Amino acid sequence: MKCKKPLFIVLFSLSIFGFTQNLNLEPYIFISKAGDSIDAEIGSFKVPEDRTESHSDSITVKFIRFKSTNPNPESPIVYLSGGPGGSGSETAKGRRFDLFMKLREVADVIAFDQRGTGLSNRLPNCKERAYFELDKPIERQIYIEKTTSNIKKCFKFWSQKNVNLKAYNTTESAKDIEELRKLLNTKQISLWGISYGSHLAFEYVSLFENSLDKVVLASLEGKDQTIKLPKNTEDFVFKLAEMAKTNAGSDDKYPDLKAKIIEVHERVKANPVIATYKNRRGGIDTIGISNFELQSAIATFYLKNPSDQKKLPKLYLDMYKGNFSEVAVDVMVMKRYIYPGVRPMPFAMDMQSGISEQRKILVANQISESILGSSINFLLYEWMTSLEFPQLSNDFRIMKPNKVDALLFSGTLDGRTYLKAGKAIANKFENGRHIPVVNGGHDLFMASPKIGETILEFFKGKSIDTTEIVVEPLVFN
Considering only CA atoms, which of 382, 430, 402, 426 is closest in space to residue 144? Predict the structure, then answer.
């Protein structure tokens, strides 16, 4: 008579068998935007769409794996794109392609497409759109009312399409990464990411610290920093104004830019502007500009990186003199393309990351007192406070100390995720190194070859003595 295996051994075997069957790897020719071609692998696996539901549907998550050139590779390096909504596989095709390839000296490098992005499962876009008259100035409250009404229509659309928006949050995405680690049959992974990718990485640190080898993150977005503080944005704008006084390296000086910025916004607040510009067809378009629309255009198009910031002093000087033609184009883009609709994955991710009660009070008190209001957040803050949509628990927004081996970068001229906030996050990493990139903006990985060299050395396990990296100074137009 044959001896039967104990039930727990059978279940364990089935579990391992299930993991093996769940990971699908196929040869893949990866081609960068510059035309570089490399042999890679495309991987896919299934995960529950919503782990909080016992009978959740499954979704497919995909990634590109670039095999290591190291005969004894370290822990796989998983790239987490920003956004939310960015694609790791698309990022690897662009300017960071060479860095992806260089890191293969250490380990396999994985361009991970988070749920709802890139090659992974995609959510249907809602075709409902809010309408904003181009030739009339429109105030903030109208934007709030029209966009929230439109989002409610989109809720109905997504419900009819059986889209479970609640399943698209940072915690679920972090658990997808842990599933990938298990499927790769590796004790630990390393993470490399930027902006929202750092926000996702911080949740992975919170949930799976022991699964981590090393972490490299830039442009840090903390666990309670989805919504940026208006006062920090104002301080950054006035910092640029102070730099423009001397404008080192240029004969163009802006000695009293701060006063002009304040006056421009006060004028537009009191008397909204009707401006014109020449369109691509050679015709003349008319654009109405309220102070909220001006704030939104400045926050969206002129603060992120030094390449944007260099235009700011002249733009304000022109507006001070009554010429709003350049910013009118930006306001048109806001009215026609940015505010009318929402993409499901980024919307759900940001909304569920949410905001703590303490931070909500700070933002509410600072909006009317700050030069750009809350426009750096688009309308996320307003939607969080006026729409019924779930948020992750309060614990999600608390970042606790950890012992992860981390290399963290912040640009001193990052107009989205500020240096001060980056320093506070770095203090939570007991084994972390925080390197300011002087004159670096938000998209800083390619700002200097020194950054890539430092990342490579860190992943190789070498000691990092660098205390700061200096890139070319900002020179205003």
Answer: 382
Instruction: Name the nearest CA neighbour of 47 among 154, 209, 163, 168.
Output: 168
Residue 231, Cα to own-chain centre: how many angstroms? 20
Phi (first) and psi of residue 248, to 5 degrees: -55, 130
CB 324 within 8 A of CB 273: yes
Q: What is the mean pLDDT of residues 134-145?
A: 97
What's the token pair of residue 99? 């860095």
Residue 20, pLDDT > 60, answer no
Residue range 401-414, pLDDT digits in tens: 999 999 999 999 99
Cα–Cα distance between 225 and 206 in angstroms, integer?
16
pLDDT above 70 (res 276): yes
Dig out the tokens for 3 from the structure: 């001896």
Cis peptide before 401 (omega within 30 of 0): no
Distances (CA, A) of 89 to 70, 93, 119: 22, 7, 8
Given its phi and psi angles, is residue 460 left (phi above 0), alpha (psi -120 to 50 degrees) or beta? alpha
Nearest to 300 by CA among 337, 275, 272: 337
Is 467 within 8 Å of 454 (Cβ atoms)?
Answer: no
